[in-house]
Design brief:
Blueprint (H helix, E strand, L loop, with lengths): L29 E2 L11 H10 L10 H13 L6 E4 L1 H13 L5 E5 L6 H6 L4 E5 L8 H7 L4 E7 L11 H9 L6 E5 L14 H6 L4 E6 L12 E4 L2 H9 L8 H10 L3 H24 L3 E3 L5 E5 L7 H10 L2 E2 L11 E5 L3 H16 L1
Parallel strand pairs: 1-11, 3-4, 3-5, 5-6, 6-7
Antiparallel strand pairs: 2-8, 7-8, 9-10, 10-12
Helix pairs in contact: 1-9, 5-6, 10-12
Length: 362
Amino acid sequence: MSVQPARPGIRKIKAYMTEAGDDGLPAPDLLLNSNESVFGPSPKAIEAAREAAGHLERYTENVDGILAPEIAAFFGVDAAKITVGNGSDDLLARLARAYLGPGTEMLRSENGYPKTPNYAFANDAEVRSVPDQGFRPSVRHLIEGVNERTRMVYLANPENPAGTYLGSGELRALHAAMPAEALLVLDCAYDEYVDDSGREPVDALVDGASNVVMSRTFSKIFGLAGARVGWLYGPPDIVADVRRISTTFPLSGVSMAAARAALTDRDHFDTVYAANRDGRTWLSERLAGLGLAVVPSQANFVLAGFPDPTRTAEAAERHLRENGIAVRRFPAPAYRNHLRITIGRRAELRRVADALEDFLAG
């Protein structure tokens, strides 16, 4: 008999993305599949990383003490409520380790971020998924789904892979209906892309509550996906718990240097935001004009459905691969006939749209 995992829930974990196998196609030259920033990091971040690479023999100590105040200054939040980690994925996994276990449940929207259940399963917790409304999380259904076993309500806002978004009033309504012993986890990896001038910053909800946390990342708008830097904002006692179960040195010196330098380049940040907003609008309108079912997005990607049963998303994905373009398709039934396309430069988006127009006309 082989050694069994101490937590049987680990065996429930499954892949949440379709993997490109050996399909005989050449490697794509245009990667619009992982929501990386095609605009890259700030030149300041690149230069800082290069310099830091000369000191790879050193651990990076006191990452919270150094990076948290600089994050706080950039975003206008309280440094005492921040801890950093090896990407937001690390921090979300730590939250699950700290607050989920046997006999408890994570509550989520059924078509939300597909990886979310894995955090619960890894800790022998159960997952309760409630219906959404056109890929948009339903506050009513989430509230109705809370029970005595609920210890975490997870919501990506904006969502992934749909790009849908709940406004400040809806978030506050959800929180107001939650029991005090349940934790509201807001995964805000795409928050910097939101185009809603009237919204309340998510940190305001965190600041006024004892059971709300927000995770953020440098992987998206800052263009540092390969550096793996994330941060968590929450009540000091929760942040302290998450910090206790960190690895000893959660960030490399190169990653730390790149993140700090990125925070000094507001111009790059603003340029990427504007380019993404304009590209998202252009691609959404072009794909809708082709007859595809485009989900309104507030992220750095667009989700498009293929309503014609003779022109499936699977076939469209292969057609794009044949043209050197990689996009993302998911195995979940609700998304099986959809493709998620990361926002690229205008010429890249035109290449994708032209290839899909050719596919749909074939």
